């Protein structure tokens, strides 16, 4: 496919997403049914669609309309490229621009320039104050690719050297001693020896930094109460140096790949369907808005509603209360989200402490996308 044909494909997919179809489903169906598209085309079209999703609102203002065509025009203008070379009408390229399209569009301002819906921009300001703009701007850019070096398999230097053999360049990142930022060759990771042998895992740097803050003494009994795919369970098992982590999730199918991932990593993870106390540490990586990770999953910015956010907060409080009952006396309860919104983070912990006077806060830390990784919050409480 030519670059312009890829833009035309993205335009059609954006129209489907705007009509309410989930982006991942739209992209998978297109990839499966477009036999002319090779893997590079699929990756390029995906990048274009995600660029538009990250900058959905500003692209519409700059492109002068809300259609897929206008939004892609906005994305191209935002990049400083000449739209006439892409909207040429030749071959599979988008049709030529009309005079009206050439004249439409203006530089976005206010909340449109932040690429947040108005109601969320207000919550960002309440939560982040002076850091609002930098956070919103960071969420408009593509996320970097990070790896976690699995200390059960080797050192950071060994992992860097092993990755280099497959043409992947990576360098340490200050957010965590186990974090590597991939600077070249990211698309080769999934078939690299380093990945297949469990020396590295794909994991955001702030996600690793969250695990670094957990009290994981050797011999601790640990429950990951919302284990999901198990990224943090594996990181905790590595920090325990071979010690076991129990993994639980209300939707056990989400942990389907965890046994294979644990085996590859040499990590001791046991799935438990009905956890019973008492653990030295119960870690709750609760379901949340995902607002700290909207670079990777930008659709959430535009689909999330205020009632959904309120429901999530109720779920989070319920998880905290249930998980607290699984902690041994003197043990720790930890709470984490990939959100930057105070109502899911500091406010949630403040309300828990108000209704649970036996607990005290030991650690609270908010990571922001402007730190380099995703936005994450973590709190550690002791009974
Ligand atoms: C943010 S994800 C966890 C991600 C995971 N810790 C990781 O690092 O890959 C939140 C998980 O919480 C689970 N969940 C939702 N409600 C729950 C509940 N009431 N109890 C336990 N887990 C729940 C979801 O199924 C989801 O897998």
Task: Explain what the structure shows.
The protein is an alpha/beta fold. It folds into 3 domains: 3-108, no CATH class; 146-202, 2-Layer Sandwich (Alpha-Beta Plaits), CATH 3.30.70.1170; 207-382, 3-Layer(aba) Sandwich (Rossmann fold). 43% of the residues lie in helices and 16% in strands. It has 17 helices and 11 strands. The chain has helices at residues 3-18, 23-33, 39-54, 56-63, 68-78, 99-103, 110-114, 118-128, 132-138, 156-165, 193-196, 205-212, 231-239, 258-265, 299-303, 306-324, 346-355; strands spanning 146-149, 169-173, 176-184, 200-202, 222-224, 245-247, 269-271, 279-285, 327-337, 360-367, 376-382. A 7-stranded mixed beta sheet has the order 7-6-5-8-9-11-10, sandwiched between helices. The protein has a 4-stranded antiparallel beta sheet with strand order 2-3-1-4. Bound molecules: S-adenosylmethionine. Residues 225-232, 249-251, 254, 285, 287, 315, 319 line the site of S-adenosylmethionine. S-adenosylmethionine is lined by residues 225-232, 249-251, 254, 285, 287, 315, 319.
């Amino acid at each position: 496919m030519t670059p312009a044909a890829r833009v035309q494909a993205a335009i059609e997919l954006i129209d489907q997403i705007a009509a309410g179809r989930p982006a991942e489903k739209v992209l998978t169906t297109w990839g499966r049914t477009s036999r002319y598209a090779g893997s590079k085309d699929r990756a390029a079209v995906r990048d274009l669609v995600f660029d538009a999703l990250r900058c959905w609102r500003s692209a519409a203002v700059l492109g002068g309309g809300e259609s897929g065509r206008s939004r892609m025009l906005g994305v191209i203008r935002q990049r400083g490229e000449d739209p006439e070379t892409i909207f040429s009408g030749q071959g599979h390229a988008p049709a030529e621009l009309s005079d009206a399209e050439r004249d439409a569009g203006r530089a976005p301002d206010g909340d449109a320039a932040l690429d947040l819906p108005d109601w969320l921009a207000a919550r960002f300001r309440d939560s982040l104050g002076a850091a609002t703009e930098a956070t919103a701007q960071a969420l408009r850019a593509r996320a970097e690719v990070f790896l976690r070096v699995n200390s059960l398999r080797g050192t950071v230097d060994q992992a860097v050297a092993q990755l280099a053999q497959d043409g992947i360049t990576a360098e340490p990142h200050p957010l965590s001693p186990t974090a590597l930022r991939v600077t070249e060759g990211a698309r080769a990771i999934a078939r690299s020896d380093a990945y297949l042998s469990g020396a590295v895992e794909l994991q955001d740097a702030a996600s690793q930094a969250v695990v670094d803050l957990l009290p994981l003494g050797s011999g601790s009994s640990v429950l990951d109460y919302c284990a999901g795919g198990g990224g943090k369970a594996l990181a905790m098992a590595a920090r325990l140096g071979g010690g076991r982590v129990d993994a639980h999730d209300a939707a056990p199918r989400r942990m389907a790949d965890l046994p294979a991932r644990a085996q590859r990593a040499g990590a001791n993870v046991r799935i438990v369907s009905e956890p019973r106390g008492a653990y030295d540490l119960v870690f709750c990586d609760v379901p949340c808005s995902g607002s700290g990770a909207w670079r990777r999953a930008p659709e959430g910015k535009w689909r999330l509603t205020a009632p959904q956010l309120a429901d999530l907060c109720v779920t989070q409080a319920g998880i905290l209360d249930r998980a607290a009952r699984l902690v041994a006396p003197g043990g720790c309860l930890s709470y984490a989200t990939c959100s930057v919104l105070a109502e899911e983070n500091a406010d949630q912990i403040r309300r828990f402490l108000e209704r649970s006077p036996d607990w005290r806060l030991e650690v609270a830390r908010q990571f922001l996308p402007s730190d380099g990784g995703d936005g994450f919050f973590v709190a550690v409480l002791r009974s």
